[in-house]
Structure prediction request, 358 residues.
Amino acid sequence: VITQASFAASALQQSMVAAADGFVARVVEKEDVDGTGFGASPVTVADFTIQALILGALAEAFPNDRFIAEETSEQLIAAGGGAVQAVVSAVTQFSVASTVEENAIDSSEENSSIRNTDAVLAALDLGASGSRDEWSRSGRTWVLDPIDGTKGFMRGDHFAVALALLNEGNPVIGLLGCPTLPAKEPAVTGAEGKKSGTTGTIFWAERGYGAYARPMHSGQDTKVSVEVLFDPSRLVRVEAFEASHSSHSVAAAAAEALQLTTPPIRMDGQGKYGLVSRGEAHIYMRLPREGYVENIWDHAAGSILVEEAGGTVTDLSGKPLDFSLGSKLSRDVQGILATNGVMHDWVLKQLINARNSV
Prediction:
């Protein structure tokens, strides 16, 4: 499903870039009502479409599981009838076949499990089921960010379709579909993370069985691992494209203390975790503003990928991330660090010092 959903997302992105009317561009600004987010953020037809497709398919395959996902039917309805119709049309076009094992998207209405507006809205709202009754602490919960890195998606740049499975609050499977991230080196070039020769990459990991990647269009799974490196002159860090999402100034101060000389790779979405997992980057610093509370869908898939590739992911206190609290991580999480593991404590110390001094 993640592969086919990534193809659908890629097609929607290409339609947006090519269309003068911006068919899949921003349809609503999602408000930060409780002050724990980044403020108003864009949501597109693609965000709603991919969520409806994936959750609809998973619900048929695993009827006893629940879900935590980013978008809601309320947001879509608020965007107006035109947006609703655009999403329903896109879901019809890219409808995932009702049996997950078929791993196919079938555009024929006969094989679509989501055939009308009500069904699309219901599929979207499955994303709230895993947060109820503390379900995610004890049950099987799928965590989805349908378009992780919406601003990158809208620029025609990097984004990810991010899906994880929690069992009793612990990530046991992580999948990332990165349609604009090349399957082979070089993944990105330059400080702005521009693409080069993109074919798309699918990452996946299963707890205890390692991490893997394959080209999105074809090819075999290849086991990936972090690069065991401790030479500051060769270390590569990756960070958010948007300075509003992660402090570039604190990261730069930490990089100076670490004596890193390579310019950072900046990109949207959890593809950053993918770069660390396959050794093209060694450090990912996530440093949001004070008061921000992390959503679990922004890290669940990526964190298990790095860990199964041999790396380490913690908060700035050095603690593992707790995904069992519902849709959010703990308010105590003031930042996240992912590394190749061998230098994690060293980087963490310098990062904390830099944060306290800036």
